[in-house]
Design a protein that fits this description.
This protein has 218 residues and is an alpha/beta fold. The protein has seven helices and nine strands; from the N terminus they run βαβααβββαααββββα. Strand 8 and strand 9 form a beta hairpin.
Length: 218
């Protein structure tokens, strides 16, 4: 069973069923990759996140040879009377891989409030390490070369750091997420006169919107 998501950020022209599906997918991925189960029993009591059956379900979801992991997750929740707390999620960003990449993705990013009493742990499959830092600290480590970070992560953390006002404030981040409309980002890379590159985002001067109109309209 799944609770409807709270109003956390806005996405243009996204059908309610699709919005719900995206939130459920985010909760599922959070559980698979971090071990945090964003759910309660129907009476509001928290699940035992360290119970053997919970651990076994997480391992099953990480099985790349099982194409029905998502459907089984829904059935597993229903059987145990668990309801996803989708209000713990805030829709944050949508990024589409540049057209020149061989493998392309259309990815949504969410913020999540960690449930009290649960401790995150990476799955060592898709996530192979973890650390607890503020957005600003993560950016400082990336700038110094001690933490590798891809471009979308850097840009999302820059905005998150600004939203938090330099603090590790979950409430500030969620409030900011709820106040803005999420814009799809499909970066455009082009060479500069000095032989380097510059990156343009939708809405910035010089961005070739017509070239990417089909992708951005989806």
């Amino acid at each position: 069973a799944s609770a409807a998501p709270a109003r956390r950020g806005r996405c243009r022209a996204t059908a309610p069923a699709r919005t719900l599906g995206l939130h459920v997918a985010a909760a599922r991925e959070t559980f698979e990759e971090s071990g945090l189960l964003l759910a309660t029993h129907a009476d509001g009591s928290p699940p035992d996140a360290e119970a053997p059956e919970v651990t076994a379900m997480r391992v099953r979801l990480a099985d790349r040879d099982d194409p029905c992991g998502g459907e089984e997750f829904n059935a597993w929740l229903r059987e145990r009377g668990l309801v996803l707390e989708l209000g713990r999620l805030a829709y944050w960003a949508r990024w589409i891989t540049p057209t020149w990449e061989r493998r392309r993705y259309d990815t949504r990013f969410f913020l999540a409030r960690a449930p009290e009493g649960q401790v995150a742990g990476f799955d060592d499959v898709e996530v192979t390490g973890q650390l607890w830092v503020t957005p600003a600290e993560a950016l400082e480590q990336a700038a110094s070369g001690t933490l590798h970070m891809i471009y979308p992560t850097i840009k999302n953390l820059e905005e998150l750091a600004e939203a938090c006002g330099g603090q590790a404030g979950v409430d500030a981040a969620f409030s900011y997420a709820a106040s803005r409309e999420v814009q799809t980002v499909l970066p455009h890379f082009e060479r500069t006169d000095d032989g380097g590159f510059r990156v343009l985002h939708p809405g910035e001067p010089g961005y070739p919107a017509e070239r990417y109109a089909a992708d951005l309209a989806r």
